[in-house]
Each structure stands twice: as C-alpha cells, then as structure tokens.
Automatic annotation (TrEMBL):
GO terms for molecular function: aldehyde dehydrogenase (NAD+) activity. Keywords: NAD, Oxidoreductase. PROSITE patterns: ALDEHYDE_DEHYDR_CYS, ALDEHYDE_DEHYDR_GLU. This is Aldehyde dehydrogenase. It comes from Alkalibacillus haloalkaliphilus. GO terms for biological process: aldehyde metabolic process.
Length: 457
C-alpha cells in the first residue's frame, strides 16, 4: 500500500468512527485552524512575499483577512446550519414529519492553485471541517514556500488521519485522483478541471470545480469614468492580474474610450507609481513559464500603455492593448496577468456577441448609472457572479455563493454555501405508527377515489 493509499485509508477509518459528527468537535477544529493562522502570521507574510512578492496589504486583504472572517462566520452559525430542517409533508403523508439532514461526504480532496495559495487551500477546508469531513490538501508546487508552510502548519495542528497535506507535481495529483475520495474540491484552470472531472467520473465522485474564464468589464457611456477606471485598475492589478475573477478584457463605449484610457493610466500611477516594476509592493508573475507566456501575448499587438518587463524580477508593468479582436492570440484564453485588451461597442446589445465568444465567464463587471441597463445586462448575459459599478467585491460578501457556470465551474462556496458544498442534503420521512391510511394500498376500496381527489385539486 502506498503512502497516499494508507493516508486515505486512515482518514476513512477516522470518519467511519463518527468522531467528526458533533458540533463540539467541528467548532473546536475551526478554532484550531484560526489559532494556527494567528500563530504563523509572520511566516505567512514571509512565504507569500518569497513566492509572489505579495505586499502585506495584499496578503491581509486577499488571503488572511478573508479566512479570519470566514472562520468566525462559520463558527457563529454552524450549530444552526447543522440542525435538520423540517419541511412540509403533503396530504398523502398525513401523520408524517419530513426533514432534511446535512450528511458529511466523508474523506475529501482539496486541490488548490498557486495564485492565492493560502486562501484557496484553507477556504474550502473551512467548509470541509464545518461539514464534518476529513481532508487531504494538495497545494500548488509553483508556490513552494507557501506550500511548505501549509504542510508544516497543518502537521503541527491536526492529526494526519484527520487533515493532511500531500505535496508534489502532476504525478502526485494524478495518484490522488485515483483514490476513492468521497468528494473532490478543485480550484484551477478549465483545462485541468476537465481532467479532474474525468478522473472523478470513473468513480462517480461528486466534485466542485472552481475554474475561470475571460471575465468582461463593460464600461457604458453614462458611467462615472474616473471611478470606473479606478475600480477596474484595482480589480485588474490585484496580484498582478493573477486572479480568476480579474477583469480579463474591456468593452468600453466608443464615445468614452479616450477618456477612460487616460483615467486608467492616472489611477495606475496613483496606486503603483509611474514604474510599477520598481515598486516593491507590486506583485510578480509566479514563474518564468507564465512570465514568458504573457510576454508572447504582446508580440504584434498595439500596446498603448505599459508593456515594459523585467525578467530578473519576473514583473510586467500594467499594460493596455488596443485594436484587438477575437482572432487575437490574447483573446483565445484567460490572460491571468496585468495585460488588459480593449474593445469598443456603440450599442449595449453588441456586448452579447462579445461575451458569447467566451461564454459563461466566472465574473462580469458593468459600469453604468442607468438601472434599466443594469438589469438588462444581469438578465441577458450568463456569468458566475457580477458587480455593478465595481469589480471583485462580490467575493467579499460571505452571504453570496461564489462559483461559475459551465466552463467557469460547477458548484459554489463561501459562508453557508461552503458548508452546503461539503454536505449532502439527506431527505428523511418519519412516519407515524399510530394509524395507517388504507387508501395507499391496492386492496383499498376507496384508494382511487381518494387519490383522484388529492392529485386533481
């Protein structure tokens, strides 16, 4: 038996023993998780600085702060979430009581990405713990300092037969996917997500896939231009654009294109100075492979702002690219970097065709002061989640489910939705034995008469 097989077997044994089923146990583990993060804050800042050059501001805002809030929210409401829900019983079930119980899946696998290596490893884990599961975490090999720290923290805090970390490259992920997990939670690219789903389908393992896509940012003629530029620049340049919900391309109304470009340039300079490459708070590209991939997008394109790069620092300045179309190389896949192509429109219904080129994006952003047009966009375009007159901020509301649709993902999480992602809603009817309604049995003389009355109201 390999180490991975043995680990999964031990977790199955622990789960079957029922140890994870109580509120007391789950709440205690969530507190341990929070305490673990608190104890290691300085190490977390250091690891993320080494892996991605993340500033303390970005670490607190996009990694640690979210986790603290999510843990607190979960601990506050967990007992209520765990309580069976009583639902109505129909007339045909007279004397019965109907409930929905929240059943843990069991032994879960969490595969996390490199762009938010701490956040996206532990945010799903909060749901797994709250739901009463055990978990194996496979962090990204691209952010080695953070992955090593995750393994060290988890090993010092939890029993391996409850929560464990397995590190390695592609082969390790494939070996894990061959194991009989009860649930798989994957965050990453659409291409890899397809492989995860294919592997899971062979054992009929349920999955949550948090993927990505080309998320459009639409700026209409009546938008507050400077504000739209500021919020778009902020959303695009967090983590140097290496965010699954970052604005991937701009659709700007032709009449305000020039004004918006100038406003965008101004906001970038205010946030990151005239030369962000030299700004120590500006995040780097994760590795040479992705750095070179992004530079290749600039070949032959009309760069109207930025474009400078430094291979020694693995940084690329915020870059605006004009005169692109859907045949351009940069429009063929999610950019995942600080490059922002610009296209224009004249009538709002033109954006439908644009969005359909890369349909079902994970996020969509629309800037306009017109409520009717806002509602038109929401109702007529398909996307995972959206902000009106903002970017990214929908992620910060734990009351909203976060997830994609189709190529941008399956399932959702955050807040109660994380608990629901890691539990099965189990239907139970508790029938009375005080009496027995005869009409349901075939020998009953009044069966057909009663059933006709019930079903033909």
């Amino acid at each position: 038996m390999t180490e991975i097989q043995e680990l999964v077997s031990k977790q199955k044994t622990l789960f079957k023993a029922g140890k994870t089923m109580t509120h007391t146990f789950r709440n205690h583990q969530l507190q341990k998780l929070k305490d673990m993060l608190k104890r290691n804050e300085s190490n977390i800042y250091d690891a993320l600085k080494k892996d991605l050059n993340k500033s303390s501001y970005e670490v607190l805002m996009t990694e640690l702060g979210f986790l603290y809030n999510e843990i607190d929210e979960t601990m506050k409401h967990l007992r209520g979430w765990m309580t069976p829900e009583k639902v109505k019983s129909p007339t045909t079930h007279k004397g019965a009581k109907s409930y929905i119980y929240k059943q843990p899946y069991g032994v879960t696998l969490i595969i996390s990405p490199w762009n938010y290596p701490l956040h996206l490893a532990f945010a799903p884990l909060i749901g797994a713990i709250a739901g009463g599961n055990t978990a194996v975490i496979k962090p990204s090999e691209f952010t080695s300092h953070t992955s090593q720290l995750i393994e060290k923290m988890v090993k010092e805090t939890f029993e391996a037969k409850y929560i464990s970390v397995v590190q390695g490259e592609k082969e390790v992920s494939e070996a894990l996917l061959d194991e009989p997990f009860d649930y798989i939670f994957f965050t990453g690219s659409t291409q890899v997500g397809k492989k995860v789903m294919e592997k899971a389908s062979k054992q009929l393992i349920p999955v949550t896939l948090e993927l990505g896509g080309k998320s459009p940012c639409i700026v209409d003629s009546d938008a507050k231009i400077q504000l739209a530029a500021r919020r778009t620049a902020w959303g695009k340049l967090i983590n140097a654009g290496q965010t699954c919900v970052a604005p991937d391309y701009l659709l700007v109304h032709e009449s305000i294109k020039g004004q918006f470009i100038e406003a965008f340039k101004k906001e970038v300079k205010l946030m990151y100075t005239k030369n962000p490459i030299e700004n120590d708070d500006y995040t780097k590209i994760v590795n040479d492979q992705h750095f070179n991939r992004l530079l290749a997008y600039l070949d032959g394109e009309n760069v109207i702002y930025g474009g400078q790069s430094d291979s020694s620092k693995e940084k690329i300045n915020p870059t605006l690219i004009a005169n692109v179309d859907w045949d351009s190389a940069i429009m063929q896949e999610e950019i995942f970097g600080p490059l922002l192509p610009i296209m224009t429109f004249n009538k709002l219904d033109e954006v439908v065709d644009h969005v359909e080129h890369a349909r079902n994006p994970l996020a969509l952003y629309y800037f306009s002061e017109n409520i009717q047009k806002q509602e038109w966009v929401i109702k007529n375009l398909s996307f995972g989640g959206a902000c009106i007159n903002d970017t990214i901020m929908h992620l910060g509301n734990n009351n909203l489910p976060f997830g994609g649709i189709g190529t941008s993902g399956i399932g959702n999480y955050h807040g109660i939705h994380s608990f629901e992602a890691f539990t099965h809603r189990k239907s139970v009817v508790k029938q009375t034995t005080s009496f027995d309604l005869s009409f349901r049995y075939p020998h009953s003389k009044i069966a057909e008469k009663v059933l006709t009355k019930v079903f033909k109201k």
